[in-house]
Write a structure and sequence with these properties.
By secondary structure, the chain is of the alpha+beta class. The protein folds into two domains: 149 residues, 2-Layer Sandwich (Fructose-1,6-Bisphosphatase, Chain A, domain 1), CATH 3.30.540; 111 residues, 3-Layer(aba) Sandwich (D-Maltodextrin-Binding Protein, domain 2). The protein is 31% helix and 30% strand. The chain has eight helices and 15 strands. The strands form three sheets. An eight-stranded mixed beta sheet has the order 4-3-5-6-7-8-9-10, sandwiched between helices. Strands 12-11-13-15-14 form a five-stranded mixed beta sheet, with helices on both faces. Strands 1-2 form a two-stranded antiparallel sheet. α1 packs antiparallel against α3 and α6 runs parallel beside α7. The longest helix has 17 residues. The N terminus is likely disordered.
Length: 281
């Protein structure tokens, strides 16, 4: 496995998060402007319409990385091209500049920047992530993780909850464009509580923080930039993870997956068994 040299990378990512929040504070996407006036007229890799601020933040992230690192390659939801900078490409950065763009535009609370850092040429899978950041646009303190060093928000180390049964679990389920079959409907009915946020990175990190116990996204629509950083954080907080797709490992950000994360292996096993009849952990 390729490794990244020890650096102060997590601290650097916190500065990037601060810069993005400062930029967005100056943006008032809803003030006096219709949604159509805020759209860029282009679509991202998923085919979703892009807001102007999506593209602005994407450029800000690339420019910041180019200034602060010797070299690397950047994969982003907002740009279909693999972009390179510098001569010494140590890093592969996987970016979702604004996860939850619709939430941000409408003034809803959950949106974030998500950034996973891998060694250059690494496969696009959670086990290859070395550093990660999910920074809520509503908070000045992002969540950061380093492999085998835990997940942290400021001085607070993140830990998942001990919940091990659906009947005691607060579950987040992504519902946009979702088909709710009888198995999923019964699971949600039996849970202690159900939420839906429209921001994958935030929902997954809420499980890492112990605020939620499960997050489910089984629409076959989730792409790697939306979950790589958050899933890395979840694992560093002690959580359990299930990912499936047409490919075992993504070859590009266009590849789509299903994902379930849970606070404990027992809870993940119960959720999978009830959804798929799968009893393996």
């Amino acid at each position: 496995m390729l490794t990244i040299p020890r650096t102060e990378l997590p601290a650097d990512l916190q500065i990037l998060h601060q810069n993005i929040r400062e930029f967005l504070v100056q943006q008032t996407p809803r003030e006096g402007k219709s949604e159509s006036a805020q759209l860029s007229g282009t679509t991202n890799l998923k085919g979703d319409q892009q807001y102007l601020f999506d593209k602005q933040i994407d450029h800000l992230v690339f420019d910041w990385l180019e200034k602060h690192f010797e070299g690397g390659e950047v994969l982003s939801e907002e740009d279909s091209n693999l972009r390179h900078f510098g001569k010494n490409g140590l890093y592969r950065f996987v970016s979702d500049p604004v996860d939850g763009s619709d939430n941000f535009f409408r003034g809803l609370p959950l949106s974030s920047i998500s950034l996973a850092v891998l060694a250059s040429k690494s496969e696009l899978c959670v086990d290859q992530v070395q550093f990660s950041m999910v920074g809520s646009l509503a908070s000045s303190v992002p969540i950061l993780a380093s492999t085998n060093k835990g997940a942290w928000q400021g001085d607070t180390r993140l830990r998942v909850s001990p919940v091990s049964e659906v009947k005691n679990a607060f579950i987040s389920c992504e519902m946009n464009h979702a088909f709710v079959d009888s198995h999923l409907g019964k699971l949600l009915k039996d849970a202690r509580g159900v939420r839906s946020y429209g921001c994958a990175s935030q929902a997954i990190t809420l499980v890492a923080q112990g605020a939620l116990d499960v997050h489910i996204d089984i629409r076959s629509r989730l792409t790697p930039e939306s979950f790589l950083a958050a899933a890395h954080i979840l694992q560093e907080a002690g959580g359990s993870l299930f990912i499936e797709g047409e490919k075992k490992i993504a070859s590009s950000l266009a590849d789509r997956f299903n994902l379930i994360v849970a606070s404990t292996p027992e809870l993940l096993c119960e959720v999978k068994q009830r959804l798929f009849g799968d009893i393996t952990p």
